[in-house]
Amino acid sequence: MAVRREVLILVGLVVVIDLVFIAAYFLGGIDRSSDQMKLLFTVVWTAISLLVVLRGLLRIRRARVPRQR
Questions:
Q1: 41 with 25: CB under 8 angstroms?
Q2: CB-based contacts of 44: which residues, under 8 Å, 6+ apart?
Q3: With 0-12 CB in 10 A as exposed, 13-18 as middle and 19+ as buried, what is 53?
Q4: For residue 64, what is the enclosing H or E element?
Q5: How far apart are CA 35 and CA 1, in angstroms?
Q6: Per-10-residue mean pLDDT for the chain, 69 residues long?
Q7: How does DSSP assign 10-53, residue by residue?
Q8: Which long-range contacts (CB under 8 A, 24 or more apart) does 46-49 make?
Q9: 57: three-class secondary structure by DSSP
């Protein structure tokens, strides 16, 4: 049950991050900005997504593998 919970949390966080960044893209006027600004925005979005996914996968792994003592 812990694995399922962690997977749902991971998926939920990724969806929330995407919603926030998509809203920021349009509401913040990034869609009308320079190519460099769009690239920077994409790099930040990707980096944050990567960190959240790696953290989530680590938590899923810990939930699946019993601790060794």
A1: yes
A2: none
A3: middle
A4: helix 35-64
A5: 45
A6: 94 98 96 96 98 96 82
A7: HHHHHHHHHHHHHHHHHHTTGGGS-HHHHHHHHHHHHHHHHHHH
A8: 48/17, 48/21, 49/14, 49/17, 49/18
A9: helix
Q: What is the pTM of this model?
A: 0.85
Q: Report residue 51 as tokens.
A: 């960190």
Q: Which of 54, 45, 47 is nearest to 25 (CA)?
A: 45
pLDDT at 69: 65
27: nearest Cα among 36, 19, 35: 19
Residue 11 to residue 35: CA distance in whole angstroms: 30
pLDDT of residue 49: 98
